[in-house]
Specification:
Length: 288
């Protein structure tokens, strides 16, 4: 493989450096003023060096082995999250003093990854090839080294779409002073052209909307009366488990499509006024 570095001169791309690599380059990330590359089963860090004659070169600084195929990388500060072809998600850290990349933790489940993203310092989201989403958490405060070395699966959900890209951001203008304006969102794209949003809800919002989702399932029947709970269960070749710590925003927003009498029935079951329910669901819609 090769890494090509271009400079923009007078509106044109000029090739200034060509670096040969021992394998295919699957991912490139800017990282602490350096270049982080995923090359076959290795994560490699390159420095941008200036030679005496003024020309530049990419110089290998350090690397990390231990993957089947490192397909996706995301970075935040000194931390690197790697999505592997078969070995799910692993968390690496770059140590400046030692000029080394070390593994901190990994998810020991066998997931064939299609995309990864770091939601924040401790929570990472992954998509895999059975059309599921899942989240893992770093156990920094665990008592033993073994627990600290394990990324704990905290959320699972069947999306039914093959996600191939996550990006931090929003599809709408956010009002910074509104409560919903403070909620972090990640956009995902799929191979079918679907664009969706994953929002990290505060706990009280989540509890309220989970109760609304459970109530709505009784009033809104899926196509062919298929079970919503069954459809959203995390399912791959190895296991099937109920969806957890994920909500179905499309189902919750369908509350606003109900006729007035149905809305009142839902509100009665929730013991919340219709206006309050509508307001909460409309707030959720402002995230996209």
């Amino acid at each position: 493989g090769r890494i090509l570095v271009f400079a923009v001169e007078d509106g044109r791309l000029q090739l200034i450096v060509e670096k040969e690599t021992k394998g295919a380059v699957y991912s490139l990330n800017a990282f602490n003023g350096k270049l982080l590359a995923a090359i076959n089963q290795k994560i490699q860090l390159y420095k941008w060096m200036t030679r005496e004659d003024g020309s530049h070169e990419l110089q290998s600084e350090c690397g990390h082995h231990g993957h089947i195929l490192a397909l996706y990388t995301q970075t935040r500060g000194d931390f690197i999250v790697v999505g592997d072809l078969m070995k799910s998600i692993s968390l690496l850290v770059y140590k400046h003093e030692e000029s080394a990349i070390e593994e901190l933790a990994r998810d020991y489940n066998a997931n064939w990854m299609t995309a990864v993203e770091m939601i924040d310092d401790d929570i990472y989201v992954g998509a895999e090839n059975s059309y599921n989403l899942f989240t893992v958490r770093k156990n920094s405060d665990a008592a033993t080294d073994e627990e600290r070395g394990r990324l704990e699966v905290v959320g699972e959900y069947h999306l039914g779409e093959f996600v191939n890209r996550f990006r931090h951001g929003s599809l709408v203008m956010r009002l910074p002073d509104s409560e919903m304006g403070q909620i972090p969102t990640v956009i995902f794209g799929t191979i079918n052209g679907v664009i969706g949003i994953i929002a990290s809800l505060p706990h009280d919002h989540y509890v309220f909307l989970e109760k609304l989702q459970t109530t709505l399932v009784k009033f809104i029947k899926g196509v062919g009366s298929l079970s919503h709970e069954q459809w959203r269960s995390f399912h791959n070749d190895k296991k099937t488990s109920e969806a957890r710590n994920f909500l179905d925003g499309d189902l919750i927003e369908s509350f606003l499509d109900l006729n007035r009498s149905k809305m009142e029935e839902v509100a009665k079951a929730m013991a919340v006024p219709v206006e309050e329910l509508s307001k909460r669901v409309e707030e959720l819609m402002r995230l996209h």
